[in-house]
Amino acid sequence: MAVTFEKSGIHLEFLEPGKVRDVWPCIRNLIVKLEKKACHGEFSADDVFTAAIQGEIGIGVARDKNGIFMIMVFEDVYYPKAHAVNVLGMAGERLDEFMTLFLGPFKDALRERGVAWIECSVSPGMERMHQRYGFRPIYRKLRLEV
């Protein structure tokens, strides 16, 4: 997904698989933070790297004049009757600013690719934050260890 946005001095780039290796040293710590704080065994930072260079998942990188401050990791999901994007996680700072500036353009770019909705599994606190931007609960995700 070769898309970039620029707003209010902030640059958001969705990395092409060939660019991931170059940017990885600058974003690895944020991916590790995502793995440690937001995930529950679904993936590791190494898994994200491998999947991103293979084009299986996307990574969005937001930066300003001071450097990278936010990353977003996402994957395409194909249902029999719909194409969705699942946000695997976000890590960094200034989430409200990021969402305010870039959710609209991100939705537009996804719509052009035939995506019907954005989905994500989130904690109750992140659910409340995302609801401010129009996300709404559809299902409650449960897990039973086997």
Q: Can you offer a commentary on this structure?
A:
The structure is a single chain. This protein has one domain (3-131): 3-Layer(aba) Sandwich (Aminopeptidase), CATH 3.40.630. Helix content is 37%, strand content 31%. It contains four helices and six strands; from the N terminus they run ββααβββαβα. The chain has helices at 20-38, 45-53, 95-112, 124-131; strands at residues 3-7, 10-14, 58-64, 67-79, 82-92, 117-120. The protein has a six-stranded mixed β-sheet, with helices on both faces. Helix 1 (20-38) runs antiparallel to helix 2. The radius of gyration is 15 Å and the shape is globular.
Largest sheet: 6 strands, mixed
Helix content: 25-40%
Residue fraction in strands: 25-35%
Number of E strands? 6
Low-confidence runs of at least 5 consecutive residues: none
CATH superfamily: Gcn5-related N-acetyltransferase (GNAT)
Summarize the structure.
By secondary structure, the chain is of the alpha+beta class. It has four helices and six strands; from the N terminus they run ββααβββαβα. The protein has one domain (3-131): Gcn5-related N-acetyltransferase (GNAT) (Aminopeptidase, 3-Layer(aba) Sandwich), CATH 3.40.630.
Which tags fit this structure?
146 residues; 4 helices; single chain; Aminopeptidase; six-stranded mixed sheet
